Every structure is written in structure tokens, then in C-alpha cells.
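Let's sit down with a protein and look at its sequence and fold side by side. Go ahead whenever you are ready, and we will take it from there.
>
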Amino acid sequence: RRDAFVTDVTEDASGVVVAGVDLAGGGRLERRYSRIFLAAGALATTRIVMRTRGFFERDVAIKDSQKILIPILRAHAPVGALDDRGLTLAGLFVDPPPGDGLRQRAHLQITAVNPMMLAHLGIGPAPERGRMRRKLLAPLLARLMVGWGGLHSDHSGDLVLRLSRNDGLWDSLTIRPRSAAHAPGAARAALSGFRRALAPTRTYIPPVGWRLAAPGEGNHVGASLPMGGGDRALASDALGRPAGFARVHAIDASVFPSVPAGTMLLLAMANADRIVREAPLDA
């Protein structure tokens, strides 16, 4: 339904009432269903459950996969590397096995030099923009790639959510990062694993220039309503039903037990498909 903002869900013996705001008209909106599946994204799904359960002025943790921005250099400079109008998406994934004190696997995505990277350096896309800079830096830029590393949530900080009541239909959700003392060491351990994996290809990660992002600077969060664990008041069962619900199923990354270092979309889709197939739709 377009122009609808869901605020909470209320369950009784006969079904579920989905309540919210009609953005077009500004009034209260309510619809009843026999069963619902929440796939609003980890943050919004958690917010809906928090409001429904009355979790106001209470800290709720949501896990994060902290990211590492990494410069990468190749020994070989491909001919025409700076003339290629290539993709800005990652072209290579590197997933070395756990090691160097890491219990969980780290993940690395690598992007070659591309127009977006050059634009950040004041070069192009117009031929006259940064022409001298391009000429001077060409030997380095032709060898440059950018890595985007990811840490498992076990090795990362997290985010703290707090829901506060306002007047009327709207509430305020505040999100603050919470750093973990072990995260910088985990990032250095992940870099060691990436270096070993890349060394046979004559590809190198310099000892300086990398940066560990703060919690929340990436976009991989979840495990706020974890299946089978965590805060018992917010934990979910194997069908994604948060405590106290029988007909409400969360089917996004909010119900992951943890957040992996790598990409999450296919995992979330597979888990959502499993929950929908196994849910007792006739009950």
C-alpha cells in the first residue's frame, strides 16, 4: 500500500492489526490480516517491534559489520587502465580463511580505478579537468585499486537504538555507534590475511593509508531480533517470530544470529524464503 508508514503491529487470537499513518491524508491507518511478514529492513523492522512491545527509552543493540577502506597497489600497470570507463562496482571478492586471531572470516571487495575514483582526485570526466595531475599521477593511478573490507559482527562494534515518544502519531528513533576495543586489532588481523591472499598475484596493501570505519558507516546491520539467542525479550524463534508473537514473522536481517563479513542479500532472501515456506499459513 503506497503512502503508508507502519508504526506498530498488534496481535490477537484472530490475526494481526497493522497500524500506521496515512501519509497522503495524515490520519491513522489500520488494516487486519491473518498473518504478516515484516521485511522493512533491519532498522525499521526493529523499530516496529520496539514500539509494539513498548520498548521506549530503552537501549536495544543492533549488530554491525564494520568496514575497512583499503588502498591496494598492483606491481603491473595495465595498458589503458586510466582510459577504461569501467564499472564502479567490485570486480573481485577475496575471502581468506580465519586466522591471525580472528574467529570469523573477513571479506574483501576490490574495485579497479574508475571515473568515480578519479573524480574524487579532481581528474575528469572533462578532458581539461585535472590534466596535469592526471599526467603526474598516472604511474601510481594505473596501479591503484580500492578495497572495501568487512569484519564479522563478532569483531566489530555495534549500534544502539533508542525509541522515544513524541506527541501525536510519531516517535523518534535515535541511533548511536558503540565502538569495540577489539575492532582495530581485528582490522589489522584481517589486513594480514588479505595481504597473504593477494601476494601471489603481486598485489599489495601498503602498511599505511587504510581506515577502519566507525560502526554504522557501512550498510550491513542486523541481528537485533536474533533467532535463538540474545535479549530474551527480543529474541525470535526459527520462523522469525519475536518473543510474544505467533502470527508476526520478521524475515529480514534483523533475525540473523550475527552479521557476516560478506554480502548479506542472498542470505536474507534465502532465510525469508525458508520462513515463508515453513510458516503455518493456514493456522
In short: The mean pLDDT is 90. The longest strand covers residues 4-12. The chain has five helices and 15 strands.
